[in-house]
């Protein structure tokens, strides 16, 4: 384990940096849309602070250790350092909670606070912990807890206003979309963790330890990246369905996905530009255009969708062709026109089916399992 230090090396401090500097395009698009609803975030924070948030904070005051100069002083200095690197006006409180589960999370809206489980503190070295603390401070800076809560309230209220059953497939599709957004927000916070620590290898080690535990000497970053590439490979229909099923119930992207995503961002232009002082500023947040975030998100999802569904669509088309031409002595079937996915150009903006209202299912349509709450 390395030497403890509150301020490791000569790291860059990002004065007045906006959270847009590290937010994943899909996360930024969702956050941008909700941030345009002026005053709603303030109202929700005030409501939560009346009672629900106080219960959560009191629970941690009573069952965990709040860090200070005299309690877990090195970790206390680390969260202060993370807030300083990202130039936060307020340092989140940090709590250490006894638990064998490898976990860390951020809670609270008006006054977010960070919680680290002791299992994670015991497992990670100082620079790996710095990445995790930076990840959680990134959640607080982006307001993920606030805006995820707002989005869920809007889905439920919208369903009630339209007299749609909360168990209906339309509502469940929206909740599933919120789950996907939640997973993308974890990728954003991984980037924030890298900005705080500015140590790519430590960040990747921390994520790999979530998969393989303390046996770092038995793991290899290059080999793990090959594993991530194999997981992402298109494969056949069964692989596509398996990935969808695995992601549907998860609150976080799988570890190999996080490692590959973070490594790609660490090697990219956006991270390099931030280190040289070229990044979005908070003073420009209100004037920031939502269109660019939506277009970037839609283009990314378009590529992902085509890659994920290509085997299924190809097999379906081949099967249809066999049906059409299977016999010369039977009446010819009427061939449908080429499906849009064969002729449509690469998406440049969100397609209509992403923004159209959900179609009402028949009364006997079974509902999907609910998306887990945001942690």
- Element-level helix/strand string: HHHEHEEEHHHHHHHHHHHH
The overall pLDDT average reads 75
What strand line-up does the widest sheet have? 1-2-4-3
Q: Name the poorly predicted regions.
A: 1-6, 301-321, 323-375
Major sheet summary line: 4 strands, mixed
Strand content: under 5%
Can you give the helix content as a percent range? 55-70%
Classify the oligomer: single chain
What structural category do the secondary elements indicate?
Answer: mainly alpha
The count of strands amounts to: 4
The separation of the N and C termini measures: 30 Å
Number of helices: 16
Shape: globular
Radius of gyration from CA coordinates: 23 Å
Write up what this structure looks like.
It is a single chain. The protein is mainly alpha-helical. Helix content is 58%, strand content 4%. The chain has 16 helices and four strands. A four-stranded mixed sheet has the order 1-2-4-3, sandwiched between helices. A hairpin with a 5-residue loop joins strand 3 and strand 4. Helix 10 crosses helix 12. The radius of gyration is 23 Å and the shape is globular. The N terminus and C terminus are likely disordered.
């Amino acid at each position: 384990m390395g030497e403890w230090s509150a301020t490791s090396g000569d790291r860059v401090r990002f004065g007045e940096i906006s959270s847009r500097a590290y937010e994943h395009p899909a996360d930024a698009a969702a956050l941008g849309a909700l941030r345009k609803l002026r005053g709603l975030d303030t109202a929700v924070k005030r409501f939560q602070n009346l009672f629900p948030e106080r219960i959560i904070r009191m629970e941690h005051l009573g069952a965990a250790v709040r860090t200070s100069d005299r309690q877990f002083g090195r970790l206390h200095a680390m969260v202060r350092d993370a807030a300083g690197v990202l130039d936060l006006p307020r340092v989140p409180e940090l709590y250490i909670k006894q638990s064998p589960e490898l976990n860390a999370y951020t809670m609270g809206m008006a006054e977010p606070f960070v919680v680290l489980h002791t299992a994670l503190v015991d497992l990670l070295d100082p620079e790996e912990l710095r990445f995790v603390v930076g990840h959680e401070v990134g959640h607080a800076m982006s307001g993920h807890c606030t805006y995820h809560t707002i989005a869920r309230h809007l889905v439920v209220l919208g369903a009630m206003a339209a007299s749609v059953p909360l168990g209906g497939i339309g509502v469940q599709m929206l909740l599933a979309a919120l789950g996907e957004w939640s997973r993308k927000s974890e990728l954003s916070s991984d980037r924030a963790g890298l900005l705080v620590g500015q140590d790519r290898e430590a960040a990747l080690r921390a994520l790999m330890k979530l998969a393989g535990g303390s046996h770092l000497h038995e793991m290899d970053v290059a080999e793990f990246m090959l594993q991530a590439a194999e997981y992402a490979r298109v494969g056949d229909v069964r692989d596509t369905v398996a990935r969808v099923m695995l992601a549907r119930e998860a609150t976080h992207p799988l570890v190999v996905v996080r490692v590959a995503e973070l490594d790609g961002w660490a090697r990219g232009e956006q991270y390099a530009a931030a280190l040289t002082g070229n990044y979005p500023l908070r003073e420009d947040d209100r004037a920031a255009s939502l269109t660019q975030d939506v277009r970037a998100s839609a283009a990314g999802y378009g590529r992902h969708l085509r890659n994920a569904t290509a085997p299924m669509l190809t097999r379906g088309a081949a099967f249809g062709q066999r049906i059409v031409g299977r016999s010369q002595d039977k009446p010819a079937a009427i061939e449908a026109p080429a499906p849009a996915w064969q002729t449509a150009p690469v998406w440049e903006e969100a397609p209509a089916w992403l923004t159209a209202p959900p179609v009402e299912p028949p009364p006997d349509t079974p509902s999907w399992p609910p998306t887990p709450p945001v942690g």
